[in-house]
Amino acid sequence: MNYFVLLKKEAVESFRTYRFFIVLSIFVLFGLASSVTAKLLPEIIKTLGGSDGIEILLPDPSVYDSWLQFFSNHSQITLIIFLITFGNTLGREVTNGTLVLLVTKGVNRNTAMFAKVIYQILLWFGGLLLSFGITYLYNLLLFPGEAQNFSSLIFHVFQIGLFGVLFIAVANLGQVLLPKAQGGLLLGFVLLILLFIINIAPALAKANPMKLIEVSAEGLKNSSAMTASQLPLFLSIGLSVVFLAGAAWQFKRVSIY
Predict the structure, then answer these.
(1) Structural domain of residue 17, as residue ranges?
(2) Are 230 and 206 in contact (CB under 8 A)?
(3) Per-residue pLDDT averaged across 20-26, rounded?
(4) Sign (positive or negative) of CA dihedral 229, 231, 233, 236
(5) Is residue 56 part of a domain?
(6) Cα separation of 124 and 169, whole Å?
(7) How far does CA 251 lie from the centroid of its chain?
């Protein structure tokens, strides 16, 4: 049984359990909401302030306010929902014994695991690109005449994608280590705490993978982050490979019967 068949199995399963539609809805929602929120939020704040007799002066919203909202949503809320949705798919198959059916048909257990990982990565990147396209087109309508630095924007999408891959790798390792205890979410939470702690030390913060989700309007305009984030980028890739290798090594020793 090749990877294409296993990926098809993962896709069918995610359709049947509505995981695909949950994740797709979130990506579409934030793709639409980023532009609309950036455009309307200043007016809403002015209206609320004016009702109390307080005059609030805010700068006119720009297209990069929309993109800051976009990257904030996807690096936090979307990633959390994605991990909750897929954070125990492997662990559930191990504890329920459904993985036995594949193994008895000659499928290598690590092949089955990596098929899940590949499907999740494809869905994660695909959702980001879909949401990016929606936001980009809406910005053309809501902020006509304002330039959008496409190369810088797509690079930041790629960075958030890699940050998500890091947590997908950690989640799958956690499911192998603690399949009965929501190990994927637990280990992902532990990693997040560690990254926050590392960020406290200036020397270590330069290589912290959390740099991948730090964006600024100026950075989006002039592509400055495309050279400043190389170390966190390569470290995230390296850690993802290490976590997946560890998951493969441990998965060979997990009882699935």
Answers:
(1) 3-251
(2) no
(3) 93
(4) negative
(5) yes
(6) 12
(7) 24
Mean pLDDT, the chain, whole residue set: 84
Q: CA distances (Å), 118 to each of 5, 6, 113, 125, 215, in order?
A: 13, 10, 9, 11, 27
Give the tens place of pLDDT for each residue, 64-100. Answer: 888 998 999 998 899 999 999 988 888 788 777 777 7
Gap between the Cα atoms of 256 and 93, Å rounded: 8
Out of 4-8, 81-85, 202-206, give the one with best mean pLDDT.
81-85
Higher pLDDT, 52 or 236: 236
Does 244 fall in a domain?
yes
| pLDDT digits 0-9 by tens, 32-46 | 888 888 777 666 666
DSSP string, 9-24: HHHHHHHHTTHHHHHH
> Number of structural domains, the chain?
1
DSSP, residue by residue, the chain:
--HHHHHHHHHHHHHHTTHHHHHHHHHHHHHHHHHHHHHHHHHHHHHHHHTTT-----PPP-HHHHHHHHHHHIIIIIHHHHHHHHTTHHHHHHHHTTHHHHHHTT--HHHHHHHHHHHHHHHHHHHHHHHHHHHHHHHHHHSTT----HHHHHHHHHHHHHHHHHHHHHHHHHHHH-TTTTHHHHHHHHHHHHHHHHTTSHHHHTT-GGGGG---HHHHHH-THHHHTHHHHHHHHHHHHHHHHHHHHHHTTS---
Is 256 inside a domain boundary?
Answer: no
The model's pTM is 0.90
* Within a domain: 257: no
Per-residue model confidence (pLDDT) at position 92:
82
The radius of gyration of the chain from alpha carbons, rounded to an integer in Å, stands at 21
